[in-house]
Amino acid sequence: MALTTAPDPTRRGTGSVRPPATRRGTGRIRHAEGLAGYVFLSPWLIGLMGITAIPMLLSLYLSFTNYDILTPWSEVEWVGLANYERMFTSDPSWWHSVRVTLSFALIAVPLKLAAALGVALLLNRAWRGVGLLRGLFYLPSLLGGSVALAIVWVNMFNREGAFNSFLALFGIEGKPWVNDPDWALETLMVLAIWQFGAPMVIFLAGLKQVPTELYEAASVDGAGKFRKFVNVTLPMLSPVIFFNLVLETINGFQGFTAAFVLSNGTGGPVDSTLMYTLNLYITGFTDLEMGYASAMAWVFLIAIALITVVFFSTGRFWVHYSDGEDR
Amino acid sequence: MHPATHPTSAPDGRTYRTPLLRRRLLRGLLAAVVALPLVGAAAACGDDGASDGKTKISIFWWGGDARAQLTAQALELYTKKNPDVTFETTWQANQGYFDKLATLTAGGNPPDIFQIDDNFLAEYAARNVTLDLKKYQDAGDLDTTKFPPSLLQYGVVDGKLAGLAAGENTQGLVYNKTLLTKNGLPEPTTGMSWEEHIAWAEQVSKKAGVPGTQDPSADYKAFWVWLRQQGKDLYAGSDLGFTVEDVTKWFELWKGARDSGATPTPDVIHEGNATDITKQLVVTGKSATSWVWVNQMPELKKNTSDELGVIAYPGDPSAQWARASMYWSVFRGSKNADLAVDVINFLANDPEAVKLLGTDRGLPSNMDLRRVVSDDTTDPAMKQSIEVENKLAETFGESPQVPIKGHSKVRAELTKAAENAQYGRATPAEAAAQFVEACKAAIAS
Asked: Can you give the residue range of the structural domain that contains A28?
């Protein structure tokens, strides 16, 4: 939009450069035009306001109340910071869900990105049929947060599941992975890692952008495959890595579906899969403590925002933009 | 809306090619945007159907296809007798039902009549969502004269009749008859002590190669019966009816059972702890017994080809009571409250309707009609559950109070603590202490 070159003030919404003499007349038109703009925006705007912005603000208000869903709004009591206080001082299951979510994200996200990058490197060649392979590797992430996939996962990784039958071929006795509190979360991590298709596709696109002359120059300087990867590929790819890292971290923190399905919505066995969002859901809808759940949601939002800020502020130390200057 | 804009007044002589058309289009769009919600509102008003003299009662329940068909037939019957009343029925699976009910309530638009169970009755009653039916009962508009008094009492919260029992059930220990006969093992009987039950299960494990009993230490209904046999209860007023010592004893009882091989391994116990009927170990073949409700027998039977038997939980059977398997409640703010009460009265007391509904929601609450239904039924599994429940009814003890606010959390905490002990991550004493502390927090808030 900003790229429109023709300076046509009647068609641009912001026309502060116009001569003052004609302001009155154009003002009306601008008004009409602006109105038209809003009318055309309205489907999106109503959606944003009604479904996102207003409920979000309401939840901020609710986070300072003892709202329990069933009590009418008029009888809701303002409790100040009590919900936040309770979260940090006297709710062991909240802390537990924070730990579960952190360990999930800290392990699953880097491994997922590594898998995506590794496969992207393998698939970044001109083999015949490589397109089909890319498609196949991308397939799992198309199924995204699907419930069906989580159900398949549960059946693959229980005691009688396919994975244990596979292990049995090598004489290894498997575990009841999804029903073992020591392994249930790890099973979810594997599921998340397996769905590396989306970042893989982005990595592939990034790899194609790396100029071949850089590799040629490196070869001339006598760099081996590893040196080329470390000194050419990684720096050139760093903006893409950064993008994927931010996105996948946010996704990782918000994992819900698989944990919900695997544990029948309880976070079990023994809270081992009690992800933050699942805990939030149980608090709000099963325990009916919607005010407290709202406070949890806001702490979560702020935490994710902080992490993203940290990413962006450290990015300048390692993200290299190829247009000559590091931003 | 706006003063007419003269086209020639536009800057640098530019004119709109078709200003009028544009403006008209614009106005049309605006009108459409403004009017859309109005249309929606008008449609919503139409739902009340006040215009054609008919009243529409909304009704919401959880359950499967079979229940939906039976209920729809019973409601059709009501419409036949009262042509001015029609129904807007909504039903869904149990999972997610209470989320939806809570959301509907929050939106100020709950159904006139809804199905609810003892896990949530107190939550809703305490917040005045449910209509107190006492007034209708006193006026004779709601006939409860044929109800067992304890069953009726189990719908009373804080002195208000918050829900009308839609059916009665009680705890039932279901065992795999085929497996026992095949291995020449004795069938368990009502009145066996807990120790005898565990010893029996150990024997089954050894001879049949299938764990004798599911470890029910995570199951609040088994824990509850056991507590009542110790002279305690799950709740006492607004407090817990038990102590850490009681829970420790309960967990230790089952630790012993696990150690002696009477139960499956912890991961299998965990599978069986799911409330889903299809996952009960007695039908998945992973254990010889499961701890369920008697009225779940026909449903369990559908999931296995083996023959099943059902008895009371171990110990003194008088610890069991006539539990309302579920209730019908009326929304307090319903515009058609009187009619809604008449409908639930019909569902409970009309001979034809009760016959149609059968034992799908538990044994009919109306004792006269219960007899008729049990004489008529041909489904062997249903017949069996009716017989057992009728027999148990002879020894039923007094109903406990309806579980208090925070009960769903207490249930979840019991599962967590018991599984902690089962997986060996905590000793029975540690798990018990953790459970009681979590419960106190849950019911305090």
From this structure: 22-62
Residues of A in contact with B251 (CB under 8 A): none
User: CATH code for B171-320+406-444?
Assistant: 3.40.190.10
For B423-436, how does the pLDDT look when each residue is reduced to its tens digit (9 = 90+)?
Answer: 999 999 999 999 99
Q: Tell me whether residue A78 is in a domain.
A: no
CA nearest to A41, candidates A8, A7, A13: A13
User: Which part of chain B is CATH 3.40.190.10?
Assistant: 53-166+325-393, 171-320+406-444
Say what the pLDDT of residue A281 is.
94
Instruction: Give the mean model confidence (pLDDT) for residues B122-137.
Output: 93
We find that the CATH architecture of domain B53-166+325-393 is 3-Layer(aba) Sandwich (3.40)
pTM: 0.82
**Residue A326 within any structural domain of the chain:** no
ipTM above 0.85?
Answer: no
Residue positions counted in chain A: 327
Q: Do A287 and B14 touch (CB under 8 A)?
A: no
- Residues of chain A scoring pLDDT < 70: 1-27, 144-145, 322-327
Is the minimum CB–CB distance between A288 and chain B shorter than 8 Å? yes
- Do A95 and A166 fall into the same domain? yes
Whether chain A has a CB inside 8 Å of the CB on B267: the answer is yes
If one counts the domains in chain A, the total is 2
Which of B116, B150, B151, B140 minimizes the C-alpha distance to B130? B116
Question: Higher model confidence: residue A231 or residue B18?
Answer: A231
Same domain, A134 and A43: no
What residues in A contact B273, CB-CB < 8 Å? 268
| Average pLDDT over every residue of B21-33 | 57
Place of tokens 């215009």: B51
Paired tokens of B373? 């239904």
pLDDT of residue B366: 93
Is A114 inside any structural domain? yes
* pLDDT score, position B276: 79
- CA distance to partner chain B, nearest, from residue A70 (Å): 6
B124, B265, B419 member nearest A270 (Cβ): B419
Tokens read off for B325: 């398997």
A210 within 8 A of A232, measured Cβ to Cβ = yes
Nearest beta carbon to residue B102 from set A28, A39, A70: A70
**Are A99 and A50 part of one and the same domain?**
no
B323-367 pLDDT, tens digit per residue, is: 999 999 999 999 999 999 999 999 999 999 999 998 889 899 999
Q: Same domain, yes or no, for A311 and A247?
A: yes
Question: Which of B172, B173, B171, B153 lies closest to B163, judged by CA?
Answer: B153
A152 and A284, same structural domain?
Answer: yes
What is the rounded distance in angstroms from the CA atom of residue B356 to the CA atom of residue A25? 75
The CATH number covering residue A263 comes to 1.10.3720.10
Q: Name chain A contacts of B406, Cβ cutoff 8 Å.
A: 287
Q: What is the distance between the alpha carbons of residues B169 and B323, in angstroms, rounded to a whole number?
A: 5
Q: What is the pLDDT of residues B164-184, one digit of tens each?
A: 999 999 999 999 999 999 999
Sequence letter at residue A225? K
Chain A residues whose CB is inside 8 A of the B409 CB are 286-287
CB B214 within 8 A of CB B395: no
Confirm whether A3 is domain-assigned.
Answer: no
